[in-house]
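Suppose you are handed a protein chain with no further information: no name, no annotation, nothing but its sequence. What can you learn? This example shows the usual starting point.
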Amino acid sequence: MNLITLKESIYNLIVETSTNLPTDARQAIQNAVPKEKNGTRASMAMATITKNIDMALENKLPICQDTGMPTFVIKTPVGTNQIEIKKVIHESIAEATQHGKLRSNSVDSLTGENTGNNLGEGTPIIKFEQWEKEFIDIRLILKGGGCENKNIQYALPTELPNLGRAGRDMDGIRKCILEAVVQAQGQGCSSGFIGVGIGGDRTSGYELAKKQLFRSCDDVNPNPDLANLESYIMEKSNTLDIGPMGFAGASTLLGCKIGAMNRLPASFYVSVAYNCWAYRRLGIEVDAVSGEIKKWLYRDLTKDVKLAGEKAGISGDEVIVLEAPISEEKIRSLKVGDIVVINGDMYTGRDAFHHHVMHVDEELPELDGGVLYHCGPVMVGSDEEGWEVKAAGPTTSIREEPYQADVMKKYNIRAVIGKGGMGPKTLAGLKENGGVYLNAIGGAAQYYAESLIKVHGRKFAEMGTPECMWHFTAKGFPAIVTMDSHGNSLHKDVFDKSSEKVKEYTEA
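A reasonable first move is to predict its three-dimensional structure. Written in structure tokens, the prediction is:
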């Protein structure tokens, strides 16, 4: 096999998967756009999403800054050297990371050290299978951490919130999938896609669920019972009024695919793999001798065109401008539903940052009255030569719930930006200390990177590129107030309403 050509093919697959949403996912999103009422938060979210897809394609940069855990599923002819293919994949992954097409996401679980090149024990994931065809089939999915954290597995029988007992039958399976959609809310960047695995053991059940995400959005399940269940879940999920980003709306789910396998008599698992709207998975058929791409999978080049995203994102006559640093008086004047744009200094802070500053006496006077962005950007450059922002959308905020109120109080932070909302401790802290939570549109990494007009540098470089504290100047950075200083939370309201709505489906 020509390994040089094979590397070009695999590198091209990685870049295209990260930057160019597949045709079937584009179509599902485009079909959902007109279902949201004009002028609503859901409509704004969908417009931002479509615009971001266009920008990523034009710029050949990541759709979402969280390029996830690269997972390859490969079928090779008998006798193919799989060791050589694995080496080529590793080289291509490292090169794509260096060029800003992937974010460095491989972290040592014991030390917290980021390898910087997406290579390490267990990363990337590569699964090989032999077959009797004469070409190589390579498929790649980039599934981000936010939606990965919303995966869930149920052991039947069980009791489910609002749905009651789920037994070892189709009705119990149905209830589990509905509950999985409710628990995801906007934290997994809805509108989303789900893969469901019925049966197997703990491990194979999740593998089967993720395998469903490699199916095409428009295929029909060959099992009529599962085909009917897929349709049912799509219909009912989109009546729950969770909507894009959990803002409430008609488009909660864009796809549902279900598979089943045999199980042990003592075990009955229903495993759900949740995927965000940034449904990044592509495939190629490769000549086993030359290494050339013979065919793209999940793609119709005639349809990979711009979506309807010209009037993207935040708009309206009541936009409120926030100049950072921000006064407490200005913050307390805001309420849930307000649309804001931010100008001035902005700092990023994620998991490692929050853990660090709550365990050491760190002086950070620059955060006084400031804006903290839950973001792990894709950056290219160096401390000596300067940095360039390649992608910078929000990460899921709920991970910081144990720390956020205390960090805001300690440093007098006035505004936190993220996605998916936060919990009661943070809400109480916002009320006590005078702060707001601002929701940006998850996955819209190109849309928001455009608003970060200058990079001043970083602190805590030892934490790695995604986790260190970046200092940006923002101009016209848009967001929506979803938790205010008066004890109001849009996220709680939507969760409560969808939890009440799902009770209607206790019986099929």
